[in-house]
Amino acid sequence: xxxxxxxxxxxxxxxxxxxKRLLKVLKAFAEYHDLTLGDLLxxxxxxxxxxxxxxxxxxxxxxxxxxxxxxxxxxxxxSHRLKEIKGSSEAKRKRGKA
Length: 98
Description:
4 helices; single chain; mainly alpha; 98 residues
């Protein structure tokens, strides 16, 4: 028997910085499944915390297509090695305050 009961949670708004093409793929994948980006990220993280793979083969194939479409050439080997282009965020923040 499947437990369809809803779990009540408190959500907060956050300002997370993320690589631009990665965000595009995530947003497109969430839209494809009629999910919010937050719901998709919660699902991915909860699966990862349990040591489970969040996606099956059909989803991985869709993600691969979206990565190609948006030019995302990063994979897990890039984790912890990404470095932001100098001035890209700092210059935008300064312009916003002026």
